[in-house]
């Protein structure tokens, strides 16, 4: 515990010496917040969000259970309400993990990044209207393709007004594809892992969730999506919305596959999307995703500095707080850029000396001049897991040690480890000694083997939960805290039996049919497809589409705009009926009987196709076999 205590004491000294500048930036321009802190969901139990959830951060009880640096960060991130950034630019912060910006365009509002849920975005718009007057929304800007920046759009406008041309929706090129595709293939696993990353089953308390380090917990209401009407395709592209001129910078492959910053020359204000934050971001989220490009991220920040920083008096972003003053903005962007560049370059240097991902993560540290900046600290992403992400991007999972080429899976390996160490009781005893000596990571390794050897061993489970809790309490990263505490929760309470989250109608409508068939393909149970070899033509009447689906060798192949005259069956239906029967488990026979699906040839082939596809398990085990 000595090393951990020393690290915590160093953090306490940093917090004590804090110049409070970030707190001043966070409070500047405060106008008001909601009178009722609870925003209910439109459907379902529980609130979409509760603005009072983080009031506990002011209690002294956090001293022993939350890293003081994370407490500092969380206090800044959870300041909630309507803020005046400058004349004509306002933000509602603390209503979600992200912030929403309202830019006065004369005839109406430009809304930037309308949060994660309809309820949260609506509440933000109501707060703006209450204190700034009634004014229509004339445009929505999505800065990038993550749901916390577009899914609340239904709370500030509607598809009818967009279709009528009353409201424009502006987004980076490729937004729609990326917005609906990132979570399609591995979405169920990502959602399960997101419970850990965001602490979604933890209570808001000094022993529970203390933000993700990037923002408060995402609002848990109704998602929506309206397709963009204007694509931003290149840096330097300009638009005038109302009386506001906007100059865009596209930054694909940084924090999101489709992302963009923009500059408002008349305001001397730059919006940095999620490319510059109040923390080190992650290059690979714990929930899972494709690895992000640290070099591209740094290079685009260099371009932002050159294009906009020297002409800006205000910088605002999609998370966190604004920054004020040209030199403050330049210094912030340069230091933030240099952190990602150092992380990238030095990870590669160490790769080329032969170090593995784990070894690099253990030794890589930012220079003091960068590390002392609060906005470079690892609250959301960390040097450790970002270094491993860079290793994965360039080198892959294999560290070149033959012992790690084809290792045993966790459960059989655990049984052999425990046997080799003298049995379950011996492992628990050695883990207890390690924990007492402050070797919590080693204690966790030993006890993980004990649990995977015998998951019914209540003593081992509780012992491991206690170790995870201690690791969570020490963690500076909100994400790491959530992961450890969720692991402890599941060891002692079991896995919460949550219903699977299905894409809503807006998202399904935005998906192409090939995307839907891709989902079907990765849900084929090969045991049910074994020995089958057939083709089905699928015609979708409401979309005037045709698709050929081939099943052979245990795989599903689909081709667009193709029909095969020798196919065993041709089925005609609407897109909704395709979704219901292939992906939602509705019986094909019912649709054939009521005429919703019409079949030529062997109608049972489409039933066979649907029967091969299994829904994923949303509540699979993580901390036990």
Description:
The chain is α+β, with helices and mostly antiparallel strands. It folds into 3 domains: 2-383, Metallo-beta-lactamase, Chain A, CATH 3.60.15; 408-474, Alpha Horseshoe (Serine Threonine Protein Phosphatase 5, Tetratricopeptide repeat), CATH 1.25.40.880; 512-611, SCP2 sterol-binding domain (Nonspecific Lipid-transfer Protein, Chain A). 40% of the residues lie in helices and 16% in strands. The chain contains 23 helices and 21 strands. The strands form 4 sheets. The chain has an 8-stranded mixed sheet, with helices on one face. Strand 7, helix 4 and strand 8 (137-141) form a beta-alpha-beta unit. The longest helix has 26 residues, at 326-351. It is globular and about 75 Å long.
Q: What is the level-2 CATH architecture name of the largest domain?
A: 4-Layer Sandwich
State the name of the first-level CATH class of the largest domain. Alpha Beta
Which regions are unreliable across 5 or more consecutive residues at pLDDT < 50? none
Say which CATH homologous superfamily of the largest domain is assigned.
Answer: Metallo-beta-lactamase domain
Radius of gyration: 26 Å
Helix count equals 23
């Amino acid at each position: 515990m000595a090393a951990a205590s020393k690290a915590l004491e160093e953090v306490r000294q940093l917090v004590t010496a804090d110049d409070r500048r970030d707190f001043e930036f966070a409070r500047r321009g405060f106008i008001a917040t909601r009178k009722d802190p609870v925003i209910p969901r439109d459907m379902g139990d529980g609130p979409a969000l509760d603005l009072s959830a983080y009031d506990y951060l002011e209690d002294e009880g956090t001293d022993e259970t939350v890293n003081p640096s994370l407490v500092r960060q969380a206090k800044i991130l959870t300041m909630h309400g309507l803020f005046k950034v400058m004349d004509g630019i306002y933000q509602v912060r603390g209503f979600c993990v992200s912030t929403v910006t309202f830019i006065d365009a004369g005839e109406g509002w430009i809304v930037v990044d309308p949060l994660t849920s309809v309820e949260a975005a609506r509440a933000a718009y109501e707060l703006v209207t209450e204190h700034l007057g009634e004014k229509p929304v004339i445009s929505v800007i999505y800065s990038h393709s993550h749901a916390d920046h577009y899914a609340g759009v239904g709370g500030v406008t509607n598809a009818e007004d967009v279709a009528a041309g009353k409201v424009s929706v502006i987004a980076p090129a490729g937004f729609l594809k990326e917005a609906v595709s990132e979570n399609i293939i591995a979405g169920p696993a990502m959602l399960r892992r997101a419970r850990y990353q965001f602490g979604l089953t933890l209570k808001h308390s000094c022993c529970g969730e203390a933000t993700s380090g990037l923002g408060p917990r995402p609002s848990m209401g109704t998602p929506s999506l309206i397709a963009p009407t204007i694509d931003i395709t290149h840096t330097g592209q300009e638009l005038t919305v109302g009386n506001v001129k906007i100059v865009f910078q596209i930054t694909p492959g940084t924090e999101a596959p489709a992302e963009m910053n923009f500059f408002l020359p008349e305001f001397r204000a730059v919006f940095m999307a999620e490319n510059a934050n109040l923390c080190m971001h992650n290059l690979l989220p714990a929930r899972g995703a494709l690895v992000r490009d640290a070099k591209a991220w740094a290079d685009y920040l260099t371009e932002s500095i050159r294009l906009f920083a020297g002409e800006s008096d205000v910088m605002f972003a999609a998370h966190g707080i604004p920054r004020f003053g040209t030199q403050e903005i330049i210094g912030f962007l340069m230091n933030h850029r240099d952190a990602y560049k150092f992380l990238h370059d030095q990870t590669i240097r160490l790769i080329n000396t032969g170090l593995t991902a784990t070894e690099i993560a253990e030794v890589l540290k930012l220079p003091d001049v960068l590390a002392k900046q609060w906005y470079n600290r690892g609250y959301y992403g960390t040097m450790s897991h970002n270094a491993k992400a860079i290793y994965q991007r360039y080198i892959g999972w294999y560290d070149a040690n033959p012992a790690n080429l084809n290792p045993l899976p966790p459960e059989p390996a655990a049984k052999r480890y425990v046997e080799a160490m003298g049995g379950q009781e011996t492992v628990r005893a050695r883990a207890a000694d390690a924990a007492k000596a402050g070797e919590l990571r080693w204690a966790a390794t030993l006890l993980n083997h004990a649990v995977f050897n015998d998951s019914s061993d209540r003593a081992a489970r509780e012992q491991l939960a206690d170790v995870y809790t201690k690791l969570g309490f020490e963690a500076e990263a909100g994400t790491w805290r959530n992961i450890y505490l969720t692991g402890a929760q599941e060891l002692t309470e079991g896995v919460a039996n949550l219903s699977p989250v299905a894409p809503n109608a807006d998202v399904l409508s935005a998906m192409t049919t090939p995307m839907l068939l891709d989902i079907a393909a990765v849900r084929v149970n090969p045991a049910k497809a074994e020995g089958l070899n057939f083709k089905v033509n699928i015609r979708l009447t409401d979309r005037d589409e045709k698709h050929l689906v081939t099943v052979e060798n245990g795989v599903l192949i689909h081709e667009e705009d193709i029909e095969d005259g020798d196919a065993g069956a041709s089925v005609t239906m609407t897109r909704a009926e395709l979704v219901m029967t292939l992906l939602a488990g509705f019986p094909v026979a019912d649709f054939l009987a009521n005429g919703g699906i019409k079949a030529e040839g062997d109608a049972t082939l489409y039933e066979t196709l649907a029967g091969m596809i299994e829904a994923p398990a949303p509540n699979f085990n993580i901390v036990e076999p």
